[in-house]
Every structure is written in C-alpha cells, then in structure tokens.
Amino acid sequence: MSNLDRQASPTVCGGRGFVVAEPVRELLSPRRVQLGESTEVRRLLPNLGRRMVGAWAFVDHYGPDDIADEPGMQVPPHPHMGLQTVSWLHDGEVLHRDSLGSLQTIRPRELGLMTSGRAISHSEESPRVHARFLHGAQLWVALPGAHREVQPHFQHHTDLPEVTAPGLSATVILGALDGAVSPGTTYTPIVGADLTLARGAETRLPLEPDFEYAVLSMSGESAVDGVPVVPGSMLYLGCGRSELPLRAESDAGLLLLGGEPFEEEIVMWWNFIGRSQADIEQAREDWTSGARFGEVHGYAGNRLSAPDLPPTPLKPRGRVR
C-alpha cells in the first residue's frame, strides 16, 4: 500500500537510543489519512510519539468499510524500496499486481508479503466484483542494511501456523510465536500475529523479553495488560516482558507486532526507506524518470506521481520525538 500523503515529510528513525527497555503502557492514537478515492485509514506508525516497533515502521488500519456500492480500495502503481509490505485482511479482498508480473488476490487471514529490496512497484485494488466489507491492516517492515539490495520478490501464503489457548487463537503472520513459525521470509528477528479472542477470554500470551512489542486493536472490546484498547488504537508495550495478559469483554481481534529493536537509523519518506536524504532523492528521481522500479501491467489507470521533496534538510529524530 502507498503512503498517499502529498505533504510527505522525511524522518529519521530507528536506533536503540530511544527503545524503552522495560514494560510500559503507552496508548497511541491514530492519524486519519485518505487513501485513494474511497478508503480512509488510521495511521498508527509513524506516530507523533513513536516511529518504530522492532523493524515494523508503518502501520495503517482501515475499515470495516461498507463498499457494496463503492469501488473500494484503488491504489495506483507506486514504488517501494528498502522495505517489506505486509497485507493482512479480516474482511474483503485485495488484488495485488507488481512489476515482477505477480497477480494475486489476497483474502482474509492470507499473507501477502512483498519484499522491495532495491526497487519494486505495485498496485492494490478491490476486485471489480467484491465482498460488501473491507477491513484490514497494511504494514511495512524495514530491511536492515545488509539486505537493502536483496532481489525483490512477492510471497503469498494461505496456510499459516496457529497457537491456541482457551478463548484464544493466534495466527502467526511473520516470525515466530510460542514455537510456531511463519513461512514468510524475514530479515530481522520479528513477530507479527493475528489474535482472535472469544468473549470472556482471559489468558496470557508468551513473549520474548528482548523484543519490544505493540498491540493494534482491530475489532471488539478488549484489554491488553489491563489497558482497554478500542479498534483503531495501538498500545506500545516496551521490552522486558515474558508474557502478556489479555482479556476480552466481547469477541475481539488484535494484531501483535514485535521484534528486536532495530539497530540502524533509517530515513522514511513517501514510499521509500533509505539511510540518507541522498538515497531518497535518487529513488524519487528514478521513479520520475521511469528507471529502476519497473512497470505494473494491467492496472486501469495512471501510476502515482511522487510528491515534491521538502525544502529543508533531514534532521535525525530517533525512534521517538
């Protein structure tokens, strides 16, 4: 998914200097962003207070939207570099096309994982004939420096491992949780899991003390470590936890995101992740000139134009403001 913010401002984030080394309960509120013609998203990362959770650098939550009489998601071809995109749905379908020639419909609880490496472009759209509701999350994972030039590729996994406990079912999207390992390719120690809680469930989820974590509420009423979370909000949890208490007041859906704190500082602007403003400037020039990012075939519309770069130079800000 693209960052369609026409006032995109470059930021530097990452590095261990601002990682919270002990458990915390920091509730993050979203910023509302219009995505295409008919989809509004709630942006949780980057946030005014926090920019990364492990290697997770971008989190959008959207829906549930009634698109029965609407075109639904319509995101024209756009570029990416230096990151992986994770498409995750609770309702609806998204048709993915990319410059490698991939054409794949992603459905609920299926993993669509695109690794941009040096350069890729893609589009995302609701199929012409689509389900009534669209509800999901789009996430980016920053690639570490050693893998920034990896060959771009796309993966689609329909059979993902699960962890269960009374009242809880956890689908492992990326990385590992309680011994269950996702087939998705990762480049840093990381975890992403979809948690389904039954009404009245009260359980504890095993965690890695060296990871930092956050939980995004997708639906329902639940409490994470005693903190009520409403759909579209995210609770940052810091590090140092070996387990996470969960309670559901109704049937509820959550996304658990975590990983080892990302060592490197990164510059993220528009749909690019680099290490310097020069990286971003070159990527923008290459997209504008038609070089490097390839072409997406089959999308009925023009590709996105890159916004103007800001007139001011980058100022490193770390993981938090």
From TrEMBL:
Residues 193-292 form the Pirin C-terminal domain. Residues 302-321 are annotated as: Disordered. This is Pirin family protein. Belongs to the pirin family. PANTHER family: PIRIN, PIRIN-RELATED. It comes from Streptomyces hebeiensis. Coiled coil: none annotated. It comes from the Bacteria. Pfam families: Pirin, Pirin_C. Residues 41-141 form the Pirin N-terminal domain.
